[in-house]
TrEMBL record:
The keyword Ribonucleoprotein does not apply. Residues 465-519 form the Rieske domain. Keywords: 2Fe-2S, Iron, Iron-sulfur, Metal-binding. It comes from Paractinoplanes lichenicola. It holds the Pfam family Rieske. It comes from the Bacteria. This is MBL fold metallo-hydrolase. PANTHER family: N-ACYL-PHOSPHATIDYLETHANOLAMINE-HYDROLYZING PHOSPHOLIPASE D. Gene3D superfamilies: Ribonuclease Z/Hydroxyacylglutathione hydrolase-like, Rieske [2Fe-2S] iron-sulphur domain.
Length: 519
C-alpha cells in the first residue's frame, strides 16, 4: 500500500486493486481564513486527481473543497459515501459532476473490485462536524490503515475487531475558534488555550493507545492563517496557549509519552507500507522545513495576498436588508425548534461592524430571541451570548444562502464572542442547522438523546457514575478522570460536579452519580 501526502487531512491511497483520494483541500476556507500548511497548491493535482475512488469524510470546508473537486478530481471516480442522516454531501457532490456513488453502511465492511476492502464509520450527532463526520478503514492484501482524520468516535473498538492496523492517521491539533475569539484578558486566553492544547494531545494519546497501530501519522491540521488580522493565530510566537501546534510539535510531544512510531507526511511525501515495514520519502528535509516555518509562512502570505484580496472583494452586498433576511430565514426555524431553543434559553446578539471582523465600528445590532421566537433589533436588554463580526460577512452568508454558519462564519475566527456563564453547545448547534432538513434532524436527535435512559454504571475512584457521558455518550470507563468531586471526560474536556451531577462546562447534560459505599 502506498500513501501519498497531499496536505492537511488529504492523502492518496494506492493499492493493486485501486486508488482512493481522501479529503482534497487546496483553496482557502472559511472566509479566506484557513489555508493548508504546508502549502499543497503546487502539487500535480491533474495526476493526483485521476483516481478510482473519492472519499470526502464530511462537509467541513477544509475537507470538502468544492472548487478543487470540480476542476481537478476525475468525475469517473466512484464516491465512497458515508451513511449520513441527510443527503447534503451526496447532493453537493452531484452538483459538482460526480455521478457514481457507493453508499456504505456505517461500521460494515464492503469489498470492492480486486479484493479492496473498506469500512466507513459515520458519526451523526448534531455536534459531529456539519451534521456528520466519519473515518475510513482500508484493507488490501493484509495491510490495514485507518484514516480517522478529525472524527472523534467514543472508542475504536470496531476497527480493532477487524485486525491489527498498520497505519493510523488522526488529528492532533486545533480546529476551532476557542479560546482565541473570546473577549478575555490575555492571561485568561493563554490559560484556557493551554488547557485545550493539553486536552487535544491527551485525546490523541488515548486514541493511539486504543488502536496500537504500527505507525501513527499526525494529519488534519493545523491550518495556517495568512490574513494580517489573523496572523497571530499561527503557532510561531512561543505561545504555550496556542491551540494550533504543527506536526513537528506532535513528534516532540509524542516522544515525551514514549511514542517512537510517528510519521510526518508533507505534501508530496510517500510512504510505502507493508505488514512488516514502512519506508517514507519526502520532497524536502522535514526537520529543516519546520525549523524555517515562519519564513515559509511569510512567503505564503505574500504569494496568497491577491487570493485573500479577491475573496474580500466578493463579500459586501450592501443592497441586502440583513435584519429582514435573517427574520425570513431564522424565524420559521425558531417556531419549529423545541430542544435547541430551550437549550439556548435566551436572546443571542449579533453586533455588525463596518469592517471584515470585530474591530470596526458597530453599525447594526440584531437579536435572535429564542424564547420570543423572533429576530429583531437589539433593544438594550441584557444578553448572555454576543457575537461581533463584519456586516459584510453576514451579507455574504445571506447572498449565498448559507445554511451552516458554523461551517463558514465561526470557523473563520473573524469574530469576537462574549458570554455570561457556561459554554452552550445549543447556540452553535442551532446556527449550523439553518435549513428545514437539518433542523428537523437535530431536533429529533436531541429528543431521542434526552429520552434515553443510561442504566449501565462504572466506578471511578470513590464514585459510581453512569458509564456514558451525558454529552455525546463517550465511555467514561475509558475517558473519565476523577479529581476530588469533579469528573472530566477527556474526549471533549467536559467537566461534571459529582455531588450535584451538574455539568460545569455547559448548560444542561446532568450526570447521574453517587458516592460508592465502602465495605
Amino acid at each position: 500500500m502506498r500513501i501519498t501526502g497531499t496536505g492537511h487531512a488529504s492523502m492518496r491511497i494506492d493499492t493493486a486493486a485501486g486508488s482512493i483520494l481522501c479529503d482534497p483541500w487546496v483553496n482557502p476556507a472559511y472566509f479566506g481564513s484557513w489555508f493548508p500548511f504546508p502549502d499543497n497548491s503546487l502539487l500535480d493535482w491533474e495526476t493526483l486527481g485521476d483516481v478510482d475512488y473519492l472519499y470526502v469524510s464530511h462537509l467541513h470546508r477544509d475537507h470538502f473543497d468544492a472548487e478543487h473537486l470540480k476542476h481537478f478530481i476525475s468525475k469517473k471516480a466512484t464516491v465512497l459515501l458515508p451513511e449520513y442522516p441527510t443527503s447534503q454531501l451526496e447532493d453537493e457532490l452531484r452538483e459538482l459532476g460526480f455521478t457514481s456513488f457507493f453508499k456504505t453502511k456505517s461500521d460494515e465492511v464492503h469489498e470492492l473490485d480486486g479484493g479492496l476492502k473498506i469500512m466507513i464509520q459515520a458519526l451523526i450527532s448534531p455536534t459531529d462536524g456539519p451534521i456528520g463526520d466519519s473515518s475510513l478503514w482500508v484493507e488490501h492484501d493484509g495491510v490495514r490503515m485507518l484514516n480517522q482524520n478529525d472524527a472523534r468516535p467514543t472508542d475504536l473498538t470496531r476497527f480493532n475487531e477487524l485486525g491489527h492496523v498498520h497505519a493510523h492517521m488522526l488529528q492532533f491539533s486545533g480546529a476551532i475558534w476557542y479560546p482565541m475569539v473570546y473577549e478575555l484578558p490575555d492571561a485568561a486566553k493563554t490559560a484556557f488555550g493551554k488547557q485545550k492544547r493539553d486536552r487535544q494531545f491527551d485525546r490523541t494519546w488515548r486514541y493511539i493507545d486504543d488502536l496500537k497501530a504500527d505507525h501513527v501519522f499526525p494529519i488534519a491540521g493545523p491550518p495556517c492563517f495568512l490574513d494580517d488580522s489573523l496572523w497571530k493565530f499561527n503557532d510561531i510566537f512561543g505561545d504555550e496557549g496556542n491551540i494550533f501546534p504543527d506536526q513537528s510539535v506532535f513528534i516532540s510531544e509524542y516522544a515525551k509519552v514514549g511514542g517512537t512510531n510517528g510519521v510526518v507526511l508533507l505534501p508530496g511525501s510517500v510512504s510505502e507500507l507493508s505488514e512488516s515495514s514502512i519506508s517514507t520519502t519526502h520532497p524536502t528535509d522535514v526537520d529543516e522545513f519546520f525549523a524555517n516555518k515562519q519564513a515559509h509562512l511569510e512567503e505564503m502570505r505574500e504569494r496568497k495576498a491577491p487570493v485573500i484580496a479577491a475573496e474580500k472583494a466578493s463579500w459586501r452586498h450592501p443592497e441586502i436588508d440583513v435584519l429582514g433576511a435573517m427574520k425570513k430565514r431564522i424565524e420559521p426555524l425558531l417556531e419549529e425548534s423545541i430542544y435547541m431553543a430551550q437549550g439556548v434559553g435566551g436572546p443571542v446578539r449579533f453586533d455588525l461592524t463596518d469592517s471584515f471582523g470585530p474591530d470596526g465600528n458597530v453599525v447594526e445590532s440584531i437579536v435572535v430571541d429564542f424564547p420570543g421566537k423572533q429576530v429583531r433589533p437589539y433593544a438594550d436588554e441584557k444578553v448572555r451570548y454576543r457575537f461581533k463580526t463584519g456586516r459584510a460577512l453576514i451579507e455574504h452568508l445571506i447572498h449565498i444562502d448559507e445554511g451552516d454558519w458554523v461551517n463558514s462564519l465561526f470557523l473563520s475566527c473573524r469574530f469576537s464572542a462574549a458570554r455570561i456563564g457556561q459554554y452552550n453547545e445549543y447556540v452553535y448547534a442551532f446556527f449550523k442547522c439553518l435549513s428545514e432538513e437539518r433542523l428537523q434532524y437535530a431536533e429529533g436527535w436531541y429528543d431521542e438523546h434526552e429520552k434515553a435512559v443510561e442504566a449501565e454504571d462504572t466506578v471511578l475512584g470513590d464514585w459510581t457514575v453512569q458509564r456514558r457521558c451525558p454529552h455525546l455518550k463517550a465511555d467514561l470507563s475509558r475517558f473519565g478522570i476523577v479529581d476530588g468531586n469533579v469528573l472530566t471526560c477527556q474526549l471533549h474536556g467536559w467537566k461534571f460536579d459529582l455531588p450535584s451531577g451538574r455539568c460545569l462546562t455547559s448548560v444542561g447534560h446532568k450526570i447521574r452519580a453517587e458516592k460508592t459505599e465502602k465495605a
